């Protein structure tokens, strides 16, 4: 079977139904298949739109259907080769291996199947489907022992099959004495058509578990469909790289052959999760799946000794994970610590239901006893024999209550320096480790002074390390990975309670060795993986302990080699270091310290990453990796990027001693009166925050899961270094080898003697070009080039002077090349040149241009206005950014053609959306992927606050994740919802160039996007940490090529338009990008320069000398930009591109697609490419041929049927206003309901506003619904709409609501207590700016996240309620879980005082009752009672003095301080 790469991710709809009576029946299976159909929209399909990414069901074995009795047999459901010869060999091996285990095959059953229901892709890869009936051996007296024997036989068979080369063609869909799986690459509605067994009334079961898959790799395989043998998974495992790495170390430690514990090659994240869960169930001493999943997915803030104990042996498998499982005796589910996936349940007297969406299963509302939501870090288990339902935490279960779970850890101590050195750290020492003056001034000193990472702007314009001739750290070859679409980054700022930086030093117990657990070996516990100087001295002192004093005796190994030994000596020193460490570990040393403290010019340091990887590889290969922790004691690590690289590549802890010594000993004016201790603490705090940020970019919250994850891409390292030290990591253009690296080390360290003699630090100008030409790093856009362009755009482009100036501009760029990978390429004509008039006109090229997303806030209203007007006049696109509408919209109707929808949802309303021609979902930004936008408080004046529905004078830092996109099917849903509100708009998705973007682009295309942006890592920004700008996104060339290739390979390229941005400066850039796949081009920095930007790189400070990136009137007065200047710049680019097209003999940019034959290695840089050992094959190799394909099903999804009906019935209301009523039944398949109506209302409001009329909606339309509403109910709601839903709703209710009212009540047939049951999903009111939401029931997690003006009352909520709320009022009348109000900067939260400990005290404080808050709270309760009949509200209103005693008004700390001061 064809297989996808290890990068494959998937997201899905899952659930199960279980009998509570112990009775099996066929109706349970029928209800499960109906639920599967209801979550079809969560699944994905291949390009043929019939072959799906997978649909499946797990149930009890249908013994009656198979003609056997329970307890006599097991069933192996097999996917096998279709080729007769390979099939015979596979079956022969299967029978012989299983016979060895006394597992005889009684019969084979050809599984009845109807291939005619399959799509072309699924039919082409259809395996041979058989069920093997296996006799139960007499010695297997229990089902559990039988299943364990089956597992052992399967694993041995796997090895034998691999030896025969039949691995991917032979797969156990299920193998059990109790359960069976039917799965296929069909749509949900076709599963029982494909498998007639599922329609047979004799197929009876006590439970049924369902799964519908959405893979980001279109051409998935049958084996990757779910359920797997034990579980099914909705979401992503963000930590999968680290989990797999640790699993392989355990496998080697046990002495198993490769793939015996976890598959090393092609497997999805869910597949690896299932394998380890199976291994723990059958190989370890943990007998219950419930406990296994609790250990693998522990809750945050888990204080029970159970979790601390097991955390020594198993790192978390975290991510957006909703797991359902069944082992034949129990069926259950578990949610990860973040709670990103929806999991709704309902209980009746005879059934338990759980699914990704409420309303998926058909059930009688009158029979429902309770309804709820699984919250983060919780689970549920149903005992199939007794029907009992347990919502317990295994860490606190009855079975474990009296057990002693001793983790045997000792907190690390600290030893003061008995004789601290005086004076600053020497220039010699700093230079030896390539610490430059710029690094000190821009990176280290700001961290020391503030405890935070330094902020910069305008992005990274410097060359990558492999192109550079400046002395730079080895870490600069590496770029951080980041999450986008398939798994979300995390908000480490506001959800810090989810994070865990604890590490253990010492031997790691192997969870598969019971003797390793009883007792655990002792370990040192660190609060973070960063050792300060005192803690390092403590470790060093432990080296002198005797075995009788400590079980842990660290040992230090120097990282250095002799200069006189040259390159060969470097190689030998690395090998000797690894061998010495291995010998020590075999001798019992459990903490290894790799130190460069003794390095010098004559004994240069071995780069820490090289030493670390050599040691890790050697320990792994010898099965010793778990027996020791590695501490890096290095001067080379000074930033969070350096620390993250070391930890991700295998270090347990790092002591960045040089940086810490600089913090303590150097002096700087910004340090003021800070003590040495405080300065060191500040640096550690900044590094800790930076490390969390880098982990969070990947969606990882626990550092143990980040260790050894190797989540970096190398740019500039060749195969020799990659295969030796960084196997299975990516290095897209090859690069230097061992010899080059050694030579570079000798050269760089040789500078130290000279620097020390001259007492002059290195100054490499990494963050800004040198004012002196020829000195320091080369940069793309510079101040000098900006000044040249200012002269250029002031002239008519048709004048000779302007044309000459443009050539001067090109010549100045040429002097500094190569700066980007594209500069290594030259255009190669393949035909006779065309006359210029035969090439497409400037106007046609201008239509392909767009202004980058620069928000009102990042730039001034006038600057953004001129960008909009210039692009409109040019026929191109403008982009609002994520700052809401420009003030000129309200006065002159000026608005961007592209409206951005980003994580903070600033200003996103129905009117904002319908005023655009294109709606852009910003998943990531090139300069800071995995992070949210930043607008510093100094720039947030009254006008900015008004546009963003915030308060002035506060930092506006957008959340890293979009809180309605936690996986690929969520993106599909948001695209669908945007199509509902604005059916005529094109939908684009902005991604960032990075490893794996091809896989992601395939998923985005399948999700229904019209346009995919590939942003380069060198794109601009108004504010970002310097480390993010420098070390995250890759050049757009790599991402564009990968996305283009993946879309072509999967037959999806013709369904989407590809656009690119990031440092585009010339017509040759555009032509090269077009050849590599781009059809559209975006410009940011270049257009700002055309407006007058001087590249001062201080956008974040509100002191822009050109008056562009500022709102200070003093600086704004300096603004001289104009739309005409921007147009002139664009015309020059278009004309430049035309000249290149003419020279190539190609008539248009569109004709360049995939014409890589028109590219060659640039002759000017051929020697450079040779010397750096670069391989440009990834850019120059021919592309896969295009295959046909019409629009995908999701892309062609228009307005939903219910929305169409509502809109048709609302015609009179829309035309004349007045009071109107509608009544509808709604189901979970009705998604985004009311968005289309809201868009129509907003369109008319806008039309009235543009005509100068009163924009107020003239009347009210009352809409009553009954049933289970699908996702996005009442999204984008506007004034004039009064909505009432009796039943329940799923996620994202009333998100981006700007007006109107939504009332949610239990179903009219319900009998449960409304106030005690959950009827609302997660993320309600996300980004709302107005209106009211009243809920007589409880809600899920992140209720009112990013609320910016709505009012709401709810009976109870989950975690993170009112997160990053900036305006509005929310009353929670009942229970609330942790972290309420985190990040709140405005608005008011009314909460019971008994729940005050659930409030994030860093952000909120209780306010004494004032008349304003009392009146607001009472008004909310009165409205809630009047609309919902809430018993809670009635009781609270009845005794108002007691209510005021019981409740408090919580407001942001800064707001409370301001009120107190006034």
UniProtKB/TrEMBL annotation:
PANTHER family: FAD NADPH DEHYDROGENASE/OXIDOREDUCTASE, GLUTAMATE SYNTHASE (NADH). Its cofactor is FMN; [3Fe-4S] cluster. Pfam families: GATase_2 (PF00310), Glu_syn_central (PF04898), Glu_synthase (PF01645), GXGXG (PF01493). The keyword Lipid metabolism does not apply. Residues 392-421, 1178-1199 are annotated as: Disordered. Belongs to the glutamate synthase family. It comes from the Bacteria. Residues 392-405 have a biased composition (Basic and acidic residues). Residues 12-385 form the Glutamine amidotransferase type-2 domain. Keywords: 3Fe-4S, Amino-acid biosynthesis, Flavoprotein, FMN, Glutamate biosynthesis, Glutamine amidotransferase, Iron, Iron-sulfur, Metal-binding, Oxidoreductase. This is Glutamate synthase. CDD domains: GltS, GltS_FMN. InterPro entries: Aldolase_TIM, ET-N_metabolism_enzyme, GATase_2_dom, Glu_synth_asu_C, Glu_synth_asu_C_sf, Glu_synth_centr_N, Glu_synthdom, Ntn_hydrolases_N. SUPFAM superfamilies: Alpha subunit of glutamate synthase, C-terminal domain (SSF69336), FMN-linked oxidoreductases (SSF51395), N-terminal nucleophile aminohydrolases (Ntn hydrolases) (SSF56235). Pathway: Amino-acid biosynthesis. It comes from Geothrix oryzae.
